Amino acid sequence: MRNRYTSPKISLTSILKWQWSKFPRTQKSEPSKLPFIKQKSLPSGEYALWLGHATLWLNLAKTTIAIDPVLGKLPLYRRYSPLPIPKEQLSADIILITHAHYDHYDKPSILFLLKQNPQTIIVAPSGFWRYLKGHIERERCFEMEWWESVMIGGLFITFVPSLHWSNRNYLDMNKALWGGYVIQDTHHTIYHSGDTAYGEHFKEIAEKFSIDEAFLPIGAYRPEAIMKLVHTSPPEALQAARDLGAKTLIPIHYGTFKLSDESVDEPIEWFEELTHTNMFTFQQRILRIGEIYRFNNKV
Predict the structure, then answer these.
(1) Is the whole-model pTM more than 0.90?
(2) Which of 213, 265, 292, 250 is nearest to 54 (CA)?
(3) What is the mean pLDDT of residues 49-72?
(4) What angle is formed at CA 63 by the lines to CA 61 and CA 66, rounded to 5 degrees?
(5) CA angle 72-47-148, nearest 5°?
(6) Above 70 in pLDDT, residue 31?
(7) Which residues pair with 59 in a beta bridge?
């Protein structure tokens, strides 16, 4: 089962060749031109609020959920778009962590949010407790296997597979799982894929859930020979939304950190080009960083 959802191993030779090919070139450090909206505090009512990269805040069933919260910079990677809301205004009843990579599990951000709300519950992949020991009581950290579900308040949360991998260093390779989440209340079914390459798991998810909003990654895809194994490009994300049978696709995982060779703004420019020149059976909603998305499609 695990091998079906594990990205093929990228050889060290391929990685070294990629890094060496970039060495002679001057790396431009241009700020993102993407618009963003400043928020003074979290909004009221039900919403999704995209804070850049894969970081998403939701409010459903009177419960606030933070997915992969990254509130500052990352080791070795600058932040190209600002956090659109003062982090002191952020809190969450539930934190969902998709996997252990640094751009998705940012330990300082998690510790800050636990300080903000000591009653926060964390839901994470199986094996993740190794990273959280000493920071949260064991009974408030739910580790999930693929396709396992938990009911918290009025929310039914299911951990679903993605085609990826997980580690923090060379000693813990795939010791914890990786994946995405389907979050349901009585009115909505929302899917956040976490990091993933394109694969058959999207159709498998569609067999079990009727997805209203799919938050899918579109960035970090060059060089294709390497990144195709672990991430989805804009056309692959559109195909994934088709496979999911989603009603609305909302692209994420771009515009904040430069993790690969394409420019910071290229993913959304490519996505817009594809959606302007092709017809799809689902809606596409591009959010500005910091934009409030209302589930009745009224902002």
Answers:
(1) yes
(2) 250
(3) 97
(4) 130
(5) 80
(6) no
(7) 47, 64
Cα–Cα separations (whole angstroms), residue 26 to 21, 31, 79: 11, 16, 19
Domains of the chain: 35-293 (3.60.15.10)
Tokens for 249?
Answer: 């696709």
Count the Cβ atoms, other than its own, within 10 Å of residue 114: 19
CB-count exposure of residue 98 (10 Å: 0-12, 13-18, 19+)? buried
Q: Smallest Cα–Cα separation from 36: which of 268, 279, 278, 284?
A: 268
Taking 90 as the threshold, does the pLDDT of residue 27 lie above it? Answer: no
Token pair belonging to 75? 């080791």
- Looking up tokens 């509130």 gives 71
Residues in the chain: 299
162-184 burial, b at 16+ Cβ within 10 Å, e below that, comes to bbbbbebeeeeeeebbbbbbbbb
